[in-house]
Amino acid sequence: MLIAQITDTHIKLPGKLAYKRVDTAAMLRDCVAAVQALAQQPDLVVLTGDLVDLGTPQEYAHLKSILAPLRQRIIAIPGNHDARDPMRDAFGDGGYLPREGFLQFAIDGEYPFRIVGVDTVVAGQGGGELCGERLRWIDDTLALAPDTPTLVMMHHPPFTTGIGHMDDIGLKGKEDFAAIMKRHPQVELIICGHLHRTIRATVGGRPALTCPSPAHQVALDIDPKAPSAFRMEPPGFMLHWWNGTGLVSHTATIGSYDGPYPFFDARGRLID
C-alpha cells in the first residue's frame, strides 16, 4: 500500500499570493499533477495541516477544487492556519471527522494498519498544544488496538527541530506525548507538517518525520536566533510505502528534471 503525504499547502483565495510572493494554488496544482504522474499510484492521500491560509470556507472550497483531480481518498488533519468548523464542513463527507470538538480520529479495519489523526491546534496561535484531554485521548485510543500497526498524523512535530523560530512556536505537551509513545510500540511512524521540509527524529522510541511543502520551504538555519524566513527550494511531498511489515518513506520532488538515465548499457556494462 502506498500513501502520499501532502502538507502546508496554504491555499488562499483565487488570485492571492502567500506572503505576497508564493502562488500556492499553482504550486499545489503542480503537486496534484506530480501525484497523478507517479508510476505507482498512491492508494491514499493524507494532508497534515495548514491546508489553507486564513481558515475561511471560501479558501477550503478553492482547495477542494484544486484537489478534485485526485482519485484517491483524502484524509486531513488541521494545522495552525486552519479553522475547525470550516474544515469540518469542507471534509465532513469523508466520514472520519467527529461532528464536534477536536478534529481527531482513528480509522480502523480499512487498511493494513491503523490511522490515528491528532489535532494539535490552538485557535489563533501559531504554536500547537497537546492538552490533558488530547493526551488522554491519544493514550486511550492507542490502547484500544495494541497489536495493530499504527500511523499517527499530526501537524506540529513533537520534537525540537533546531530551527529556532519554529521551535519557539512548537508543540506544548511533547514530553508527555513522548511518554505515551513509549507505552505503544505498535506506532510505526509519526508524520507531521509545519516545518515545510524533511526532518527526522525519534519520539519515545518511535520514528517521526516532517514533510516538505509543495510550495515554500522554511529556511534551513539551525541557530536559535535565526530569522523567521522561507526559501523557494524545490517543492515536494512524501510517499510512505507499507511493505507488509513496516512503513518505508520517500521524499518526492515536484518539477521537471533531466533523466532518468541508465546506469548500464545494452550489454549490461556500467556506463563510464
Structure overview:
With 272 residues, the chain is of the alpha/beta class. It has one domain (2-253): Metallo-dependent phosphatases (Purple Acid Phosphatase, chain A, domain 2, 4-Layer Sandwich). Helices cover 21% and strands 24% of the residues. It contains six helices and 15 strands. The strands form four sheets. Strands 4-5-7-9-11-10 form a six-stranded mixed β-sheet. Helix 2 (57-67) links the parallel strand 2 (44-48) and strand 3. Helix 2 (57-67) packs parallel to helix 3 (84-91). The radius of gyration is 19 Å and the shape is globular.
CATH homolog superfamily: Metallo-dependent phosphatases
Q: Helix content range of the residues, please? A: 10-25%
Give the percentage of residues in beta strands.
Answer: 15-25%
CATH structural fold name: Purple Acid Phosphatase, chain A, domain 2
Name the overall outline: globular
Number of strands: 15
- Secondary-structure-based class equals alpha/beta
Give the terminus-to-terminus CA distance. 37 Å
- What is the number of helices? 6
Structure keywords:
272 residues; Purple Acid Phosphatase, chain A, domain 2; single chain; 15 strands; globular
What is the compact description of this entry?
It contains six helices and 15 strands. By secondary structure, the protein is an alpha/beta fold. The longest helix is centred in the N-terminal third of the chain and has 13 residues.
